[in-house]
Write a structure and sequence with these properties.
Helix content is about 40%, strand content about 15%. With about 600 residues, it is of the alpha/beta class.
């Protein structure tokens, strides 16, 4: 009982007992989680009840996705933008299995995610309960075992706190990735001791700073001896990208990025030579193969198929390679490297900058910064696209190359871009160069201005991830470049953006086809089958869902769009762009891998 004084009199009122679901939400509140993304259902109802109570006191609140995979994608987008834990939830049975694809994506992308799924009450296990997914039914804990870094059934309230903290710590600390807790309905509803979390989770989640000092010293010696070093920046660099670029300027060393590292370096920087790997630039590849290059320093990349152009043993996976990693497991991908350096990127590059920041180095840096500012003023890039003519050609139907040029010019520098799997990611990776005005200096936790899923590569990924990012990113618009195939799979999540008034722009490359399948079959000499899609008016669908929708068929129609008004609009906008489906996307490295597999 608690005492409340009203009108000078003391009244005794009952205090609601805290249940397990409340304790979960209290922990999320302590570590700054704003949203839990999910779809409700009977077995997960106590968690939604706890989130309703939390929302009333200003704590974490629920965002209801339209499909559980979308919920996991949204949680990934939120985590990528904020650097906090992403949280998603689903009910038992099909709710749990629906969410697996999104959790698997976070696993391959090293995104810190907590997935909570319901179970039928413990006493019903093995009895054929409705949507049972226990070890005697469709074993969801078993299903999640191969796409999570922590995975457990909570079978008693007294287990919950320890397992919850262990799951979150495992998700956040490197190698980061998803953790999964399966919690039966009666456990979620059960009382727990105390009203406050027992553990200081904030301190337990502080980044672990470490450096392999002998390896760092060896790296400094390698750089000191090198005549022509090149830096390769991967997607894990985030905050360290500015420091890596600073060191490159001191050394006068060219810089390239992997496809998922695109956007961490301004396209106007004079040392930037483009993207290597899938849909990359010939100039970036040539930079690595320059016979003068005697050191390649790859930082924050797992050296996967898409990051290396199909494991190119002539350009990057050579004896010139030094692999610098915070996630030590990624070093297993580079046994041919001259040197492995494990540690915190900030500490590694701060030490290297201190060593190489000579008077001559500072003069080189000043020259590069002056040239970068001039390039920004004139629009001059230090690298070239593989097809410069198509990039600037305003033809009808609109070519994807020209559309990427239009997007970069039309949207403000604060725009965040997401590219969906399929032709979209190929066109965006190669041709979309947003006018990022950050030539040097710190980066946000959310990384660069561009994101793609180039590992697990789920179609529709960018739609949900863009929604999650947009909820957390209010400094500019978020643009999701996707295809008609992806929208037909996951386009219902547009209604979440409508519900929450998100300034989110969906640019749909509409060619009535699964474009990458179509061109892959043509380039590979396969049977032409299964790639056709019906003609769909996505602008009309968007309007029916409550969003703004525009059909764009010609360059003139794109130029007539009021992009400033679209960016100011407190809600989503769909640009249904009828693109030239006969333009072949830059997917040569993917085709090489497929041919080699024969």
């Amino acid at each position: 009982m608690a005492s409340v004084v009203t009108d000078g009199r003391e009244h005794r009122i009952p205090v609601r007992e805290q249940v397990a679901a409340d304790l979960i939400v209290r922990y999320l509140e302590r570590i700054g989680v704003d949203y839990v993304f999910g779809v409700p259902g009977g077995a997960i109802e106590p968690l939604f009840d706890a989130l309703a109570r939390s929302a009333r006191r200003g704590g974490p609140r629920v965002v209801v996705a339209r499909h559980e995979t979308g919920a996991a994608f949204m949680a990934e987008g939120y985590a990528r933008q904020t650097g906090r834990l992403g949280v998603c939830c689903a009910t038992t049975g099909p709710g749990s299995t629906n969410m697996v694809t999104g959790v698997a994506s976070a696993h391959d992308n090293h995104v810190a995610l907590l997935a909570i799924t319901g179970q039928t009450p413990l006493a019903t296990f093995g009895k054929g309960a409705f949507q049972e997914s226990s070890c005697t039914g469709i074993n969801t804990v078993g299903i999640y075992a191969n796409c999570t870094r922590y995975n457990s059934l909570v079978s008693h309230q007294d287990q919950l706190e320890q397992k919850l903290v262990s799951a979150i710590m495992t998700a956040v600390h490197a190698p980061s990735g998803p953790a999964h807790l399966s919690i039966p309905l009666d456990v979620l509803r059960g009382p727990v001791r105390g009203q406050a979390p027992s553990y200081d989770l904030e301190s337990l989640l502080r980044p672990r700073e470490f450096v392999d000092e002998p390896a760092l010293a060896a790296l400094a010696e390698e750089i000191g001896r090198a005549h022509r070093p090149v830096f390769v920046i991967g997607d894990e660099c985030h905050e360290a990208a500015a420091a890596i670029l600073d060191l490159a300027m001191l050394l006068d060393a060219p810089v390239v990025t992997t496809p998922d590292g695109k956007g961490l370096v301004s396209p106007w920087h004079p040392l930037f030579r483009g993207v290597i790997g899938f849909a990359g630039h010939a100039e970036a590849h040539a930079t690595l193969q320059d016979p003068r290059v005697d050191l390649v320093v790859a930082v924050g990349t797992d050296l996967s198929e898409w990051s290396t152009g199909g494991w190119d043993g002539e350009a990057i996976l050579t004896s010139h390679l030094v692999h610098v990693e915070y996630t030590a497991s990624n070093l297993t991908r580079s046994p041919m490297a001259r040197l492995h350096v494990a540690g915190s990127f900030d500490r590694i590059f701060a030490s290297l900058i201190e060593r190489f920041e000579t008077d001559a180095g500072r003069r080189r840096r000043d020259r590069h910064l002056a040239r970068a500012r001039e390039n920004l003023r004139t629009g001059e890039r230090a690298f070239r696209f593989d097809d410069e003519a198509a990039f600037g050609r305003p033809s009808t139907p609109i070519t994807p190359q020209y559309l990427m040029n239009c997007l970069a010019r039309a949207f403000p520098p604060s725009t965040k871009y997401f590219a969906d799997t399929g032709n979209s990611v190929a066109w965006v990776t190669h041709y979309l160069e947003p006018p990022d005005r950050r030539i040097a200096g710190p980066r946000s936790i959310g990384g660069g201005v561009f994101r793609a899923c180039v590992k697990f590569a789920s179609m529709g990924w960018a739609i949900g991830v863009a929604v999650g990012c947009s909820l957390a990113y209010r400094d500019g618009p978020v643009v999701c470049v996707t295809g008609d195939g992806s929208v037909l799979m996951s386009g219902q999540e547009l209604t979440v953006a409508v519900e929450h008034g998100l300034p989110l722009v969906f640019v749909i490359l509409n060619d009535s086809a699964l474009g990458m399948v179509k061109h892959g079959q043509r380039l590979g000499g396969a049977e032409r089958i299964g790639y056709r899609l019906p003609a769909v008016d996505f602008a009309a669908i968007a309007q029916a869902m409550g969003a703004c929708g525009y059909r764009v068929s010609t360059p003139a129609e794109f130029e007539a769009l009021d992009i400033e008004a679209i960016c100011r609009h407190r809600g989503p906008t769909v640009l249904d762009v009828r693109v030239d489906g006969e333009q072949v996307p830059p997917m040569g490295t993917r085709m090489k891998v497929l041919r080699d597999s024969r």
